[in-house]
Amino acid sequence: MTATDVSASAGKSSASEHGAAEYNAADPAKPEPGGRSGRGPGARRPGRPLRRSHPYYVGFVGGLGLILAYYLAQALVSLTSVLVLIVIALFLAVGLNPFVERLTARGLQRRWAVLIVAGTCLLLFAGFVTAIAQPLAEQTTSLIASLPQHLEQLGRNATVRRFDAKYNIVGRLQSLLAQADTAKMIAGGILGFGEFLISSVFKAFTVLVMTIYFLGSLPTIKQSTYQLIPASRRARVGELADGVLERVGGYVSGAVTVAALAGLASYLMLAVLNVPYMLPLALLIALTDFVPLVGATIGALIVTLVVLFDSPVKAVVAGIFFIVYQQFENFVIYPRVMARSVDVPPMIAVIAALIGAALLGVIGALLAIPLSAGLAYIVREVLLPRQDRS
User: Fold this and answer.
1) Mean pLDDT computed over 125-140
2) What dihedral angle (degrees, nearest 10) is formed by the CA atoms of 177, 178, 183, 189?
3) DSSP secondary-structure letter at 48?
4) Cβ proximity of 20 and 32 under 8 Å
5) Most buried residue, 156, 234, 327, 367, by most Cβ within 10 Å?
6) Sign (positive/negative) of CA torsion 135, 137, 141, 147?
7) pLDDT score of 324 more than 90
8) Do the Cβ atoms of 132 and 279 come closer than 8 Å?
9) 183 to each of 188, 190, 192, how far by Cα in Å?
10) Residue spans per domain, the chain
11) pTM for the complete prediction?
């Protein structure tokens, strides 16, 4: 072999090694020519990163997102009752805040004003409970104990007896009450009522504590919230928020006034009719009057039905009174009490109450009207002037 052949062979070997190195650098996963894999110690290199558009990447990240969203939704649903209590306490604090502001305007420190307002409310509530607890318990017990007698008297009615002879209503009720499942159901209902009573007391105490806390720290809460707004818009946002809070507080105090007047008028009517259970019935009217749209009607139907057990004539008089009073309340009392503070068109109030009841039941119906009042205020102060300028 000549020197020229040796140099040519060496050049080919060097070129083949250089080509193999470029081949492995381009794709480390592919084996080198000649059977070597290129995966020996010191020869391993990281593979290409997984593209974000890769189906496996999209599916994995999307699945994690769905799982996280599901658990967050479950947590939010489980916290709904707590959030409702917080919102109720905040509404009550906003409703009591005008009384605190009046005391602070006279030079009293806010903590002492909050203490006076909260203590006055607690004393009034305690005095109210003390005044009505004994007669309410006696009259309620008497009402429950007299139900069988009233039902027996009602069974002597000729019309009722004809229905019973035709449909065997009494026999069906007796057989239903004699079943073991019915007894278990009644026992479970009693236990459920006990649990409901305990949980209601706990929730009422929680709302009371949070209301006092919100009432004392309401200016701090507002100031901290306003700090999140840009400085150029902070004054305007604060003005709008104060207007919304004023309307919410006006609705709370106005609703209390309307319900108290309804309870007082019902008590006087029942006293004139000499109904033996006037106190719990009047209290029922006052409580149901808080519920928008249907609350007053439901309370009136229940009270009229109870009065029917005492006397059909008294029941007719009570029904006529409730019809007349509800019209007087809807067209005279409610507009005058709510006109200055809430100022919501009746149709908007009805729609808001229906939406709130569909979302959160009775609590939603109670909160929907003041929220709609705040929204209507923002529309009048922000949206309509902007539309007029455009």
Assistant:
1) 66
2) 0
3) P
4) yes
5) 367
6) positive
7) yes
8) yes
9) 8, 11, 14
10) 251-340, 342-383
11) 0.60
CB-CB neighbours of 225 under 10 Å: 12
H helices, E strands: number in the chain: 14, 0
Q: If we measure between CA atoms, which residue out of 49, 50, 20 comes closest to residue 37?
A: 20
* Cα–Cα dist 43/47, whole Å: 12
Number of Cβ within 10 Å of residue 356's Cβ equals 21
pLDDT at 137: 67
Specify the length of the chain in residues: 390
Question: Token pair of 2, please?
Answer: 């000549």
What's the CA gap between 99 and 195, in Å, rounded?
A: 36
Neighbours of 264 (CB within 10 A): 13
The percentage of the chain sitting over the pLDDT mark of 70, rounded to a whole number, equals 67
User: Can you read off the two tokens belonging to residue 156?
Assistant: 């002597």
Q: How confident is the model at residue 264 (pLDDT cuts 50, 70, 90)?
A: very high
- DSSP classification of residue 32: P
Torsion over CA: 150, 152, 156, 160 (sign): positive
User: Three-class SS of residue 352?
Assistant: helix
d(CA 81, CA 62): 30
Residue with tokens 């449909």: 167
Q: How far apart are alpha carbons 228 and 230 in whole angstroms?
A: 7
- C-alpha to C-alpha distance for 308 and 314, rounded to whole angstroms: 7
Q: 287, 299 in Cβ contact below 8 A? A: yes
- The per-residue pLDDT for range 37-74, each reduced to its tens digit, is 445 554 566 667 767 777 777 888 888 989 999 998 88
